[in-house]
Specification:
MetI-like fold, two-stranded antiparallel ribbon, disordered N terminus, 337 residues
Length: 337
C-alpha cells in the first residue's frame, strides 16, 4: 500500500526534469555554441589585424614586384621603346636575341664570371671562417673586419676605387713589377679586366663567411677528437668530417652566391671606365649590363624584357640542377639517422 501510494504521488507530480532541461536552465549546447561563435569572431578580428599589418608588404609586392613582372612579360612579346605604344611582335625579340653576337658575348662573360668568381669567393669565405672558428683574442673584431666589405663592396664608390687600384702604374701594377710581372693595369686590358671584377667579388666574402662560421660552430668537437685518436690528419678531418657536416650550409651558400653572381651589374659597369661601360672590348659585358644598355640606352625595352625573362629561366634551371644534385653530396641529420 505504501509503494502504491508513492507511485501515485509520483505520477501526480509529473515526469522528472533532466538537469539540462529544468526550469530556468539553458538549452543543451547553448554555452558551447556561444563560445564557438565568440572564438570565430575573435579569429576574424585577429586575421583582419594580421592583414592590416601585412598590407604595406602586400601593396609593395603587387605594385613593385608582381605588377612590373607581369608588364615585363607582356613587353617581352612587343616592340616597345618607352615612348610609343607597344606593338605586338610575338617571338621576334627572342629570335633576334639568339642571333645577336653581343648577347652571345654577354652569356659567355657571365658564365665565365659565375664559374670562376663563385667558387673562389666560397673558398675564401670557408677558409677565413675556419680560422675564426678557433678561440682567440679579438675574435669579434676580426669577424666585423672581414664582414665589412660585404656591406660596402657593392657600392659605386668602392667600384671606382677598385678601378683606380687596377689601372696602369697603380698599386697592383707596381706590386706586380716587384715580382717581375709586366702585365700592366688589369682594367685597361681586355684579357684581365674580368679578373679585376672577380677579385672585387672575392673581396666581398663576408656574408657567406658568417654563414659558414655558424655551421662550423654546430660540428661536434667529439668527432674531431675521435678522428685524431684514429690518426687522421688535418686534411683527412676536413674532407671526412668538416665538409659532410656543413654540407647543408655549403649548399645554401652555393645556391645564394650563384644567383647573386648572375645578377652582377654595378661593379661590371663601373670597371669599364668612363665612356667605356662594361669594359674594353666588352670584357665585362655581363648579362645584366647588356640588358641595361638595350633597355635604357637603346630604348629597346621589349628586347630587354625578353632578355630579363631568359635570365629568369636560366637562373631557375641552375637552381633546379643544384637542388637535384644535393641528393648526392648534401648530408642532412635526418638522413643520417
Amino acid at each position: 500500500m505504501e509503494g502504491t501510494a508513492a507511485t501515485d504521488a509520483g505520477h501526480q507530480r509529473g515526469p522528472r526534469l533532466s538537469k539540462d532541461a529544468r526550469p530556468g536552465g539553458r538549452p543543451p549546447g547553448s554555452a558551447q555554441a556561444r563560445s564557438s561563435a565568440h572564438a570565430r569572431r575573435r579569429g576574424r578580428r585577429e586575421n583582419l589585424s594580421g592583414y592590416l599589418f601585412m598590407s604595406p608588404w602586400i601593396a609593395g609586392f603587387l605594385l613593385l614586384t608582381a605588377g612590373p613582372m607581369a608588364a615585363s612579360f607582356y613587353f617581352a612579346f612587343t616592340d616597345y621603346n618607352l615612348f610609343d605604344t607597344p606593338q605586338w611582335v610575338g617571338l621576334k625579340n627572342f629570335s633576334d636575341m639568339f642571333a645577336d653576337a653581343r648577347w652571345q658575348k654577354s652569356v659567355e662573360v657571365t658564365s665565365k664570371y659565375v664559374v670562376i668568381g663563385t667558387p673562389l669567393k666560397l673558398i675564401a669565405a670557408l677558409g677565413v671562417a675556419m680560422l675564426l672558428a678557433q678561440s682567440r683574442r679579438g675574435q669579434a673584431f676580426y669577424r666585423a673586419a672581414f664582414y665589412a666589405p660585404s656591406l660596402i663592396g657593392a657600392s659605386v664608390s668602392v667600384a671606382i676605387v677598385w678601378r683606380a687600384l687596377f689601372t696602369d702604374d697603380a698599386v697592383v701594377d707596381r706590386t706586380q713589377q716587384l715580382f717581375g710581372m709586366n702585365v700592366g693595369g688589369w682594367v685597361g686590358d681586355p684579357d684581365w679586366t674580368l679578373y679585376a671584377l672577380v677579385a672585387l667579388t672575392v673581396w666581398q666574402f663576408g656574408a657567406p663567411m658568417v654563414i659558414f662560421l655558424a655551421g662550423l660552430k654546430q660540428v661536434p668537437r667529439e668527432l674531431y677528437e675521435a678522428a685524431e685518436v684514429d690518426g687522421a690528419g688535418p686534411w683527412r678531418r676536413f674532407w671526412s668530417i668538416t665538409l659532410p657536416m656543413i654540407s647543408p650550409v655549403l649548399f645554401f651558400n652555393v645556391l645564394l652566391e650563384t644567383i647573386h653572381s648572375f645578377q652582377i651589374f654595378g661593379s661590371a659597369y663601373i670597371l669599364g671606365g668612363q665612356g667605356n661601360p662594361c669594359g674594353p672590348a666588352d670584357a665585362t659585358l655581363v648579362y645584366t649590363c647588356y640588358l641595361y644598355q638595350q633597355g635604357f640606352e637603346n630604348s629597346r625595352m621589349g628586347f630587354a624584357s625578353a632578355m630579363a625573362w631568359m635570365l629568369v629561366v636560366a637562373v631557375g634551371l641552375v637552381t633546379a640542377v643544384l637542388f637535384w644534385s644535393q641528393k648526392r653530396w648534401v648530408h642532412y641529420e635526418e638522413t643520417a639517422r
